[in-house]
Amino acid sequence: MPRPTAAFFDLDKTIIAKSSALAFSREFQAGGLISRRAMLRSAYAQFVFFIGGADHDQMDKMREFMSQLVIGWDVATVREIVTDTLLNTVEPLVFDEAVNLIEQHRLDGHDIVIVSASGSEVVEPIGQMLGADRVIATRLEIVDGKYSGGIEYYAYAEEKARAIVELAADVGYDLAECYAYSDSITDVHMLEVVGHPYAVNPDKELRRVAVERGWPILTFTRPVALRQRLMPGRPTLAALAVTGAVALGGVLWAQHRRTRASA
Length: 263
What we know:
Blueprint: E1 6-9, H1 25-30, H2 36-51, H3 56-69, H4 75-88, E2 93-95, H5 96-107, E3 111-119, H6 120-130, E4 134-143, E5 146-153, H7 158-171, E6 179-182, H8 188-192, E7 196-200, H9 204-213, E8 217-218, E9 223-225, H10 226-230, H11 237-262
C-alpha cells in the first residue's frame, strides 16, 4: 500500500502576506486587550518583519515582544476576537497563489499541514478556513484562563523539522515524497527533511541556499482577502445591508402602489 503524502506550509509570508500574529493588532486594541501604544509597536514590528528577512535575532525579539504583550489576556476573548476578525473583516491577506497550490495538493490527495511559529489561537482557525488537515503551532502557557507570558511549545527553526519528522512517524508519511514551502532561512531545516522543498518569496539567505541546492523558487505576488478568497459566494455584511435596503424599498413601493390603486 502506498504511504500517505503531505504538503507542509509555513504560514507567515508563505501563505499569509503579513505576520499572522500581528495581523490582529487593531482588533485586539478595539477589544481592550492592548493600548494604542502597544498597537503601534506591533505595527512597527510587522513592518520590520515584512521588509526584511526574519533571522534568528528578529524572531527572538518578536517572540519576546509577543509573549510579554499577552500577559494577562483572557484566552476566550482572544479566540473570540480572532474568529470574529476572520469571519467579518478582510484580514488577514493571503497569497492567491498559495491557496491555489493548497487546493491542487488537496486534489492530488495530499494532506495539508500548516507549520507556524505563531500562536495556535491564530494558526488553528486560519488552518480550518484553509482546510488544513493538521496544524503545528506555538502554544502559549495558560494559567487560570489567562496567558502567563510563558511559552509552552515554540514551533520554530529546528523544532519545526523535528515536529514534522515526529508527525510523519505517527501518521506514516513518506517524507521523501512530501512537500514543504517556506520563505525564511530559519525554516531551512524544515525544507531539508522532505523530498520536495520549495522556497517561496525567499529572503536573501534562503534564496542563496535554494540556488545552491537546486530547490525550486516560487514567487507569490497576489494578496487577496482570506474570507473573500475562500468564500467568494458568501455575501458581506455591507452587501446584506444593501440587499435588505433594496428589499425593504420594494415592499414599501408595493404597499404605496396598492394604496393608490385602492384610493
